[in-house]
Amino acid sequence: AIPPGGESPAQMMPRLYEFTGKVMRDAKNGYGDFIIHTHGTTLRLFAMAFLKIDPLRYIDFKNPENASLYV
């Protein structure tokens, strides 16, 4: 379900692909340490974009637990 005033995962993906590309470009230019603080759905989609997992598999993955740390 899409929260009121929110977005669906499909609507979020283009911005996440753009952000993932920026992170990768920055990493290649020597900026290798990043902290990403976000909500569970966004983090799940970011990880999928970063790992090049087909967004159609979104339902196969669960959101990280609150206050999770992924390294």
What does this molecule look like?
Helix content is 44%, strand content 0%. It is built from two helices and no strands. The chain is globular and about 40 Å long.
Q: Given the structure, what is the number of helices?
A: 2
Tell me roughly what share of residues is in helical segments: 40-55%
Number of strands: 0
Morphology call: globular
Looking at this protein, list some descriptive labels.
2 helices; globular; single chain
Walk me through the topology.
Layout: H1 9-28, H2 40-50
Helix pairs in contact: 1-2
Summarize the structure.
With 71 residues, this protein is mostly helical.
